[in-house]
Amino acid sequence: MINKIIKTPAEAVAEVFDGAVIMISGFGEAGSPIELIHALIDQGAKDLTIVSNNTGSGHVGLASLIEHRRVKKMICSFPRTANSTVFPELYTKGEIELELVPQGTLAERIRAGGAGIPAFYTPTSVDTPLAEGKESRIFNNKEYVMEYGIKADFSFVKCQAADRYGNLIYNKTARNFGPVMCTAATTTIVQARKVVELGEIDPECVVTPGIFVQKVVEVSNPADESKLVAENRRYPW
């Protein structure tokens, strides 16, 4: 019997190893699997490469993972946002690496990795510093820069509901990078607000099929990241 349900976030992230590449879903707070990230802080893996839209806020979630010096490199689109102070300070000191990727290019690099496409061409970064050192070609009299697909050892993803097969649906725009990240990792770990019985999710509404998911943990009352940041909370509590 297929059953991908894991009892706790701690058990779900137990196999993450030092030096792993981890994709973390979310557009700011929306879709960020904060409980999985906190469980990873407790677990202790280090020298991580994180692929995410941004670098977290305040001193919780991804920002806390960075603050605990567990991340050696960020691959992201927005390294500095309104409430991000941890990453900018460490980067200024030369204590963390950054690979800056335009948001659409980041999404396509992840999608390509999941689809088995090693590289593709895009006009996005032509004539900018992001194109330096990269191969370019002319197609139909227009220049394009080559970008490589990204694959990861693990993806941490948040969804609205899942069943024990790992079929997922999301909550509106909190879907963001989740579906493509599920396809691009060797092991996809999902925190779901609700685990439902088989058949409760209309097959026509499934966004991520279970074939792309290895572990699901129910977190019925996830932390409100914005509230934690506003209260200047720090993890661990």
Question: What is the secondary structure topology, with strand pairs?
Answer:
Elements lengths: L4 E2 L2 H4 L8 E4 L9 H10 L4 E4 L9 H7 L3 E6 L9 H7 L4 E4 L2 H13 L3 E4 L13 E4 L2 E7 L3 E11 L5 E2 L8 H6 L1 E11 L19 E4 L6 H6 L7
Parallel strand pairs: 1-12, 2-3, 2-9, 3-4, 4-5, 9-11, 11-12
Antiparallel strand pairs: 6-8, 7-8, 9-10
Key structural traits:
alpha/beta, Glutaconate Coenzyme A-transferase, 9-stranded mixed β-sheet, 3-stranded antiparallel β-sheet, 7 helices, 12 strands
Concise account of the structure shown:
With 237 residues, this protein is an alpha/beta fold. Helices cover 22% and strands 27% of the residues.
Task: Tell me what you see in this structure.
By secondary structure, the protein is of the alpha/beta class. Strands 1, 2, 3, 4, 5, 9, 10, 11 and 12 form a 9-stranded mixed beta sheet that branches. Strands 6-8-7 form a 3-stranded antiparallel beta sheet. The chain has one domain (5-115, 151-230): 3-Layer(aba) Sandwich (Glutaconate Coenzyme A-transferase). It contains 7 helices and 12 strands.
